[in-house]
Amino acid sequence: MTRHARNCTAGAVYTYHEKRKDAQTSGYGTNSQRLGKDSVKNFDCCSLSLQPCANPVITKDGHLFDKEAILQYMVTKKVEYCRKLKEYKKQRKDEDAEKEESAASEQRKLLEKFIKTETKIVSDSVLEGPSTSSGSRGSSSISNMVNGRDKQLPSFWLPSQAPTAKALKVAKPDKTIYCPVSGQPLKATDLIEVKFTLVQDPDDKKSLIAKESRYMCPVTHDILSNSVPCAVLRPTGDVVTMECVEKFIKKDMIHPLTNEKLTEQDIIPLQRGGTGYAQTNDNLEGKEKRPALQA
C-alpha cells in the first residue's frame, strides 16, 4: 500500500489516490466494466474470420458470414462426421466380435464342465493341465509387443495405456451441421446472399476497408454502422435500416426497390457485434483487476 500522509501506512482512511495506484500494481480482485467499441465486431464482418466479407451471406437467424469461410466450415464438419462415423462403426464391430468371443468362451466352459462331471477315468489334473496352460499362452500375454502394440509408443505411467484399460466408447455422431454462432441447424441452401450499398462520395479517396462510412441504406441513404439496427430483405439481399422497415416497408409490405410483395419471413434482422470474447454487443462487460481489502 502506498504512503498515507507522511510516513504513515496504517491510517484508517483509504484514499481514492491510494486505491487507484494499488489497482494498477496489484492483481487481487476484479471489477466489472463495459467494453468499448474496439472489442466488438463490425456489422459487415464475418462471424468466423472477423474480417470484412468479400462475398457476404446471412443465415435465417441473421448471422453474417463470408461465403468461403462458412462453406469451408461446413465441409470440415462433414469430414469430421465421416471420421467419427468410421470410429463408431469400428467400435460396434469390435463389440460384436467381443460378444461372440465371450459366447464361445461360455460354451467351452460348459463343455469342459460336462467332461469333468461325466468322465471319471482321467483325473482333473490331466484334463486341466495342457489345455489351461496352452489357452493362457494363446489368449493373454505379458509382452507389450503383441496385438499390434509394437507400433505404439508405450506410456506405462498413464492409466489409459495399461493392459487392463478399456477403450473409451464413442457415441454415435450427429450428421446435422450447426451454426457456429447460434447453434441452430444450418444448411447450405439456407444461406442468403447479402448486397451492401456503397456510399458514393467522390471526394473520399480512401480504400473501402479504411473508410469508416462504407455502406448506406439504399432507400433512406442513411450510413450503416454498429449503432444502427439493420435488416436484410430476403428476395434481393439488400441491407436497409430498421427505421426504414418500420416507417416504409411494414406499412404496405412491398419491397421499396422492386415493388415485390414481402412477408414477415422476408425481413431478417442483422445481428450486430459478436467476437470471440462476447457473442453479442448487448451488456458487454469485462473484468478489471482491483485490490481486495480484507479485515
Cα separation of the termini: 15 Å
Largest sheet: 3 strands, antiparallel
Shape: elongated
Strand content: 5-15%
Which structural category do the helix and sheet elements fall into? alpha+beta
Over all CA atoms, what is the radius of gyration?
A: 34 Å
The count of strands amounts to 10
Report the mean per-residue pLDDT as an integer.
77
Salient structural properties:
elongated, 30% helix, alpha+beta, three-stranded antiparallel beta sheet, 295 residues
Give an overview of the whole structure.
By secondary structure, the protein is an alpha+beta fold. The chain is 30% helix and 11% strand. It has helices at 16-25, 67-118, 124-139, 242-252, and strands spanning 30-34, 56-58, 64-66, 192-193, 197-198, 215-216, 230-233, 239-241, 267-269, 285-289. Strands 3-2-4 form a 3-stranded antiparallel sheet. The chain has a 3-stranded antiparallel sheet with strand order 8-7-9.
Quick summary:
With 295 residues, the chain is α+β, with helices and mostly antiparallel strands. It has four helices and ten strands, in the order H-E-E-E-H-H-E-E-E-E-E-H-E-E.
